[in-house]
Design goal:
Blueprint lengths: L4 E11 L2 H11 L3 E5 L5 E4 L9 E5 L4 E9 L2 H14 L3 E4 L10 E5 L5 E5 L29 E9 L2 H10 L4 E8 L5 E8 L7 E5 L5 E8 L3 H13 L4 E7 L5 E7 L5 E7 L10 E4 L3 H5 L8 H5 L3
Parallel strand pairs: 1-4, 5-8, 9-12, 10-17, 13-16
Antiparallel strand pairs: 1-5, 2-3, 3-4, 6-7, 7-8, 9-13, 10-11, 11-12, 14-15, 15-16
Amino acid sequence: MKKGVMRPGHVQLRVLDMDEAVEHYRDRLGLVEVQRDKQGRVYLKGWTEIDAWSVVLRLAEEAGMDFMGFKVTDAETLAARKQDLIDYGCEVETIPAGELDGCGERVRFQVPTGHHLELFAEKEQTGKWGVDENNPEAWPEDLKGMRATRFDHALLYGDDLDGTVDLLTNVLGFQLSEQVLDRDNDDFRLAAFLSVSMKAHDIAFIRHPEKDKLHHTSYYLETWGDVLRAADLISMHDISLDIGPTRHGLTHGQTIYFFDPSGNRTEVFCGGDYTYPDHPVTTWDADKLGKAIFYHDRELNENFLGVVT
């Protein structure tokens, strides 16, 4: 049941030191810095992204995520989904066009896990970075670091997982693609992976006693060799490694996790499953959670599960 929500559009992250954060996301991760605004926020994008930017860094006293935005097909869809959210009982805030440079009006709402999500229909489009639209080359030759291609998804932690899944699926047309259930506790849902596209997931949630926590933001690489190269760069530049390179059971992506200087977890990955509207939900049992998260080791890592911003 698609309702005009197309894909992840952006995320705004809080960082403690802007110079260190820009070095991480631009020079190491390989996003392209495109502009800075009057508030001092820094805008970046992956080189394959059509919109002008997808990642915004804001200087703050506490790390974490301010909000994640999804792009809808047009202004009429934005107005319709706004009314749907109001009818569902959400408190909705309208952010005027231009509050984020080059972005049109945004509709912001809070999901039951405490996170702020938003919808928008318009953003300046500058095309793929360093590649012409006419007779394009395969890739730009002057990419930096891990050469991230796009902002892909975020994994968020919060308490009311079922309420958030209900809102996203029934109001905004997300598809539940994968989940973790506790079979010994009336199929209590511990994790949910949701998609508005053909990807394995565009956003994911883990049940957690605290609201509004960020586990990681994730960026797509092209090959397993690129993930291994990312591991080399993590070592070369003494970046704080979390875990990997490895493979997930959930989504089957090949992955590595590390931290930005503010403590926000970053993932780069390649591969993974795909989702069509007629696909059944893939379910993992809670007693297989180790294999679901770390397919090779088949064991849980408490730091990976517990460290959030």
